[in-house]
Amino acid sequence: MSKGIDVSHYQGLINWLRMAEDGVTFAFCKATEGSEDGSAYVDPTLEYNVKQAHSVSIEVGVYHFARFISVGDARNEADWFIKNTRGLPITLPFVLDLESNHCKSDKEMNAGARAFLERVKEKTGHPVMLYSFGNFFRDRIDKQLVKDYPYWHARYSKIGPINMDLEDIALWQNTSKGDIGDITPIDMNIPGGKWKCWDKDHETADPKPQKPKPEPKPEPKPKPKSKWHEVTGNWHGQTLKEGDHGEPVKQLQQMLCKLYFYPDKHAKNNGVDGYYGEDTEDAVARFQKINLPHEVDGKAGPHTYAKLKEEIRDQKKSKPKHSSKKVSGIPVKGHIKIVNVARAAFICDRPSDHSKNLSTAKKGSVLPISGSVPGWWEVIYKGQRAYVNENYGKRV
Fold it and tell me: Segment Disordered: which positions (predicted)?
């Protein structure tokens, strides 16, 4: 299977020969953010990464991180992207990285995304692709976009991209914790069914028509089974998994919410509905990633149950003296302590691996939080919401 990575200046100066020796066959490099009239930004490693990767026969694409606030601004961002990638040896698509909405509505955001992709394709004649992630894709992205353009989906899971069928996408970013070519962590990607759909050289010719065989008589279809398996009683640690539903699942979801690992923060009751779907599996996996790093499977068994009970008990015992109900008008729902770092963790402006670093928090320092989103703690920094990677914060 092809190995692919995506990189930016966060990885420093990459040894691309080592990447090729370790089996990397394609890479996407960060190019730009914003526009020439706005927050103009060019990744300082863009030219180095593209040329060095190309020199060792690694196929290269580039991406632009979207910050546009209108359709017109999206076209300006496209022009900025084109200006700074012109002349580079790029063989894979130009990508729009769409992870947040800065427009007045989702409708305008989707129109802006389409305007960006159309302008880049029209001005360069080069194939284009859209990138987004999990729940943002599910809730905010116009699905017609992914019918009209190849789509690159980020969703960190062992069992599949979820929200999309692997055969229906060009690329799946399946982890942000890869380890390859002396670089860790790094985003890793797996080709999907529409990988290289833009490349005519990869199209297969239609086979010669054959005489149709007589169709066999259809056999009676078996009665479809229910998707959900009912579980009853109370949850005392018996293993729960995707497809289960009932009171034990609801109790699991309530425990997760107490620790701010919401099954679905934007749904009614934060996703507490008694159904163990993909969002609950994701919440369990996020909890395990921090508290049971050797047992990250998205299934809630006796170890997960015991750890949830322990964390909830510790949460009740530990109430820092500096705790308050609000900071700068933002409700405080707890605190985290910075852990699992050598010296400090980054405080970021948004929950994304491509975010801007606002500051750092020293190891052992305690920060107030207003909640969490998948993969990130939502902290309160200088009177505003900011984000710390979930791996570097532990509730106190």
Answer: 197-230
Q: Where are the domains of the chain?
A: 3-191, 229-309, 334-395
- C-alpha distance from residue 2 to each of 23, 25, 81, 131 (Å): 8, 6, 27, 19
Residue type, 332: V
* Count of other CB atoms within 10 angstroms of residue 4: 25
Architecture of the domain whose range is 334-395 = Roll (2.30)
Q: Quick one: 377 exposed, middle or buried, by C-beta within 10 A (0-12, 13-18, 19+)?
A: buried
Point out the least confidently predicted range of 117-121, 337-341, 379-383: 337-341
Quote the CA–CA distance of 245 and 243 in Å, as a whole number. Answer: 7
Tell me the whole-structure pTM to 2 decimals: 0.56
- Write the DSSP string, 62-90: EEEE---SSHHHHHHHHHHHHHHHTTS--
Nearest in space to 312 (alpha carbons), one of 269, 351, 255, 369: 255
For the domain covering 3-191, report its CATH number: 3.20.20.80
Task: Report whether CATH 3.30.470.20 matches the domain 229-309.
Answer: no
